[in-house]
Amino acid sequence: MNKVLMQGNKIIGEAAIRAGCRFYAGYPITPQNEIPEYMAEHLRQQEGGVFVQSESEVAAIHMVIGASAAGARAMTSSSSPGISLKQEGISSLAACELPAVIVNMMRGGPGLGNISPSQGDYFQATRGGGHGDYRVIVLGPDSAQELADLTMDAFDLADRYRTPVMILADGMMGQMMEPVIFKTPKPRAYPESFIMKGAGAGKSKIIRGLILDPLDMEEHNWTLDRKYQVIARKETRHELYKADDAELILVAYGTSARIAKGAIKRLRESGLRVGLFRPITLWPFPTNELRDLAKKVENFLVFEMSTGQMVEDVRLAIQGRARIGFHGRPGGVVPTPVELANVVMHKYDRKEGIVDHF
Amino acid sequence: MMKQVFGRPKSMKKNIFHYCAGCGHSIAHRLIAEVIDELGIRGITIGVPPAGCAVLAYNYFDIDMIEAQHGRGPATATGIKRVLPDRVVFSYQGDGDLAAIGIAESFHAANRGENITVVFMNNAVYGMTGGQMAPTSIMGQKTTTSPTGRNNVLDGYPIQVSEIFALLPGTAYIERCTVNSPASILKTRKAIRKAFQYQIDGLGFSLVEILSPCPTNWKMTPIESCHWIDEVMSKAFPLGVIKDLPAAAKEEGKKGEQRHDG
Fold first, then answer.
1. Cβ of B64 and A205 within 8 Å?
2. Gap from A67 CA to chain B (nearest CA, Å)
């Protein structure tokens, strides 16, 4: 397979189609418009490929519910305010145990916010997002290659666990161009028995989230929870970068991790032993892996394009075993590696200065 | 040897309806099931029940069913139908579901001309939640949230969904019926059958609005409720075929042929 130069949003569209996505519904919102545009052109060229420009984000996610129940690999995409609107349907997907892929190209918030890259939706994504006791698998790509790979993986994970999977990236990832190689996806392995296509001569099926008896609903919640525990055990992913001899570990994901890598190169040139811990799955968070790292590293600095959200998961993982600092740029500001390097350099010399800011 | 003249439709499960005495839902359910049996489409039909009293419709229909969140039935049905175009897909919606919280999903499914059928139960109140004012509550109607009667200044006007949807080029067939008498029930059955047949023939979006009694929340007896539909409700929501594009096209065709022959 040849390397091609593509824009992030289009990479997601192409990877989804190659992964067998045959239904996409979406509503225009910046900075992810190239995804619906790509699907309108390319998904419709596939046999059985359906693209619907929906009347709203709400309608889009409920179309995805129908398409998923009917047996199609289904996807929708949006950006922060639109993802808020989709939460009703994401909660339903989780409740009804239906697979689907949701892409969030985050932008500055809260409210309408702006259209610049941001990481302000981490809480929403990793805590379920909508109402009720549930989780969504959240993948945080940091390169064009990962946009392609994780989009394909997202469909497999959604099928395997019959649960919604979110790609959590931002306007930067969506808009930038990078070379990418599309791998050959595995053939879909989704049991026919899960698909609703009319009862035929057999027994009729019901797909529902309404369970009026509290004891039955409790059991459903525990059933989902057991599934989430399996996911947490088996599907956690992370990357370590220059961490072997590090005295200070940056913790960052997505665009922040890219910036962190640039900063680390500079810091290393100055002789500072700084490494990176990059969660690839944001839920499940690589808690144990980070905790293990805290056995040998004493200083952690969490860097996010937010006022500090993932830092809470870092605290939960490290549980006081090491010092944790935080640097954040919310609201759509994308700092340079130089800025981050300066922040780290400032704190590196005075490690006692790295203290939890709470 | 006795001949069976009445029985449970094959598309219905052997469960007892939970609906109140005099409620129109059970009648509408039965009519839909009878039509499904008649058309022999039980195995290829997928129903989308709403939030509201009919949320438990899947306890009664012996067909594949997927629950929709409040108002989202036509969006869910769109997803199913686009993936499985040869299946018969219908959503079953109340007035709050269709005309308030789900007006966008319903309106746009109609506007796209999705080849689905909507059975629209209009009982002029929110039944499940205890009789609050609905978008179709009529002027002056007393409900728990319009205690002095619906007032246009405070509450706006009842929405004539069928008439509005009929203006959309995407809709093929729209009829408003009721289920307050044996004659009207038979008429409703014919309307549902026509809607499903049109869908099978690929003719586009069809909607059957059913003025449905809700004695519990109207605070009337079932008999009084049936009278209220005739005397009051059907004045605000006139019964009859509101749009029948396929029939009109057929008529045009005939005329054309006649002209041709002449």
1. yes
2. 4
Are the Cβ atoms of B66 and A89 closer than 8 angstroms?
A: no
Note whether B66 contacts A22, CB cutoff 8 Å.
Answer: no
Contact in structure between A299 and A247 (CB atoms under 8 Å): yes
Give the closest-approach CA distance of A20 to chain B in angstroms. 13
Are B30 and B12 in contact, with CB atoms under 8 Å apart?
Answer: yes
In chain A (358 residues long), the average pLDDT of successive 10-residue segments reads 94 98 98 98 97 98 98 98 98 98 98 97 98 98 98 98 98 97 96 97 96 97 98 98 97 98 97 97 98 96 98 97 95 97 87 53
CATH architecture observed for domain A4-234: 3-Layer(aba) Sandwich (3.40)
Q: CB contact, 8 Å: B39 with chain A?
A: no
- DSSP, collapsed to helix, strand or coil, labels residue A200 as coil
Chain region(s) in chain A for CATH 3.40.50.970: 4-234
Contact B66 A65 (CB under 8 A): yes
Q: Strands A177-180, A4-7: parallel, antiparallel or unpaired by DSSP?
A: antiparallel
Q: List the Cα angle B131/B76/A202 in 5-degree steps.
A: 100
Could you tell me the domains of chain B?
A: 25-261 (3.40.50.970)
Any residues with CB less than 8 A from the CB of B151 and at least 6 apart, and which? none
Q: How far is A85 from chain B (nearest CA, A)?
A: 13
| CATH architecture for residues A240-353 | 3-Layer(aba) Sandwich (3.40)
User: Which pTM value belongs to this model?
Assistant: 0.96
